[in-house]
Amino acid sequence: MGDSIRVEVAYALPDRQLVVPLQVKKGTTLFEAAVQSGIATKFDGLDLEKAPMGIFGKAERKPKERVLEDGERVEIYRSLIADPKEVRKKRAAAKMDDADDD
Predict the structure, then answer these.
(1) When comparing pLDDT for 26 and 84, which is higher?
(2) What is the DSSP secondary-structure string of the chain?
(3) CATH no. for 4-101
């Protein structure tokens, strides 16, 4: 047990999520843990080679290099469907239009 650590690998869709507890060797990277978890086989279209990843909500630029520590959770992020800035602009414009109608 001294040469292994416990981590979790998580992925979520709007209607479904999965967290896989995993025991890996010390020195395992984010990417390696994601592959070992088998999580990609549970979600159609999840490509670990392209998916952004992070630890507890903080994106990691190099998941193939970032070594995990005991207790960390690997998070696999979905690509954004819409740019959040554009969504806010459209929402603000719609509110302005509603206000003009009054």
Answers:
(1) 26
(2) -TTEEEEEEEEEETTEEEEEEEEEETT-BHHHHHHHHTGGGGSTT--TTT--EEETTEEES-TTT-B--TT-EEEEPPPPSS-HHHHHHHHHHHHHHHHHH-
(3) 3.10.20.90
